[in-house]
Amino acid sequence: MKGQKGFISTGKWPLSGLFHTFARWQLLHQERQMLATLSDDALKDIGLNRADVAQESHRHFWEDPLRK
């Protein structure tokens, strides 16, 4: 409609933002666990070492390096 520039939809549920934040934290935790299971050769292929993985796996779940 005319004159509705900047309209922001908050979603159908009032807690949808909280759900998305929790889902992102859970995904980040899973990615950190999978990173810890990679072999040294696989880590070398992506430019990491065991010290990088140890540092990343000890971060708290709320520490999102991309801050999305």
TrEMBL record:
Matching InterPro entries: YjiS-like (IPR009506)
Pfam family, one: YjiS-like
Top-rank lineage group of the source organism: Bacteria
Residue ranges annotated for the YjiS-like domain, each copy included: 18-53
Protein name: DUF1127 domain-containing protein
Organism in which the protein naturally occurs: Pseudomonas lactis
